[in-house]
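Two entries, shown back to back:
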Amino acid sequence: MYRPPAFREDRIEILHQTIVAYPLAMLVTSGTCGINANLVPFTLQSDAGERGLLQAHMAKANSQLADLRAGAEALVIFQGPQAYVSPSWYPTKRLHGKVVPTWNYVMVQARGGPVIIDDPDWLRMQIDALTGQQEQYQPESWSVADAPASYIEDQLKGIIGLEIAIDRIEGKWKASQNHPAANKAGVADGLMAQNPLSPMALIMHSLADSKT
């Protein structure tokens, strides 16, 4: 991933927080069928190994499984908040006009060797973990145990498990760090005018606060 110094994020705890907050990731492999990509929700075991362990499940009918079984390296791309940045938000536009549009975004890329797991007990554990992670925010949370046991057993027959021990992980936080303070403030104000709770504006403020 192209990462100019201003945008690099290598703190493992921040990268892990982003994976947990934005678990739906693009799973990318390259194998005999060429490049293959699918959206897959992952759970993270942050204390497993040096960089963590990703776990997921996917349909047995998914053609990407052939490459995963063959041991093709997996690239897992987690994308956090993103926002278009208008040049009209830069005070420097009024000074010299030398501004262009851009995009601010947060991204984490994790790589590692895949392991396929065909074990109903493991699958149930992973699904329980993923469901519990997401349902905790619901006013009336749903549990896998709420569905008939026979129905869950039938559903498990159509999926298979996936583990990826993270060998390499890197992050990119593109949040106007390469602009003067006035432009950063202008972008944050512009984003908040569109949405007072803009996730990207909050990230920009948190980056500014971390340097004070």
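entry 2 starts here
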Amino acid sequence: MKNIFLLIVLACSVASCNVTESIVFNQNGSGNFLLSYEMGDAMKAMTESMGDNSDKEKKEGGEVMDTTMVFADIMETYKDSVAALPENKRLAMEAVKDMYMRMQINEEEGIMNFGMGMQFESIAELKDLNEKFKKIQSLNAQGEQVDAMKENSPLGNFMGNENSDVAYMYTNDGFSRMTSIKVPDEATEDAMDELFDETDESNQQFLDYFQSSFYTVKLTFPKTVKSINIEGAEFSDDRKTVSYKTNWVDYLKNPKLLDVNVKFVDE
């Protein structure tokens, strides 16, 4: 687990990666939330850059991994080690014990997916997810390296919008996803202005990479969807699953592009 976040940063620095936010609801309002990063193209780019070594590994068969790590299970199995952690990391483990991480890798098929998620009993449990994700990252032994890379290169500005929070509401009549944007300080505003300055060649390189990346929201309900206020949204045949997406750069400019209101058929 210690190298996962470093892997994401390195992978996304050489090729585009797509992010999918998926929520599946059960009849009683419980469900599963998963934020996944699809980095197959990034893995291919990294493999090609390795030259002869990659050819050798391909002949021998590439790495294959499909594993899920549940924090509650880790805390129980290694409870003595967890108890001996520094207080900040022990408290971070406590805060995310209801979450899990999933890693899928198949080098031969060009698959590299990483996800963070949680099972929830009610939609209210999805409150403060951003804070939980930050705590997971704080557990990473390579966190300082990731922070340094983010702070000292344009890449860091493309890894997500930390000035926004998302709230979810689920009722018998429908579902909504609402983004609130914190008032940015002067330094943040300056950084965003610099980020989208197309005259800066170093930033333009990353803009080109991330123009082909997307943030997708996929929602699955136990009820049939009557309407959604997103143009171009795609439905499953039974209209119980709906998905929509926006370009990653556009999302960074305006996180509210992913806000949605869904209405259910009155059954």
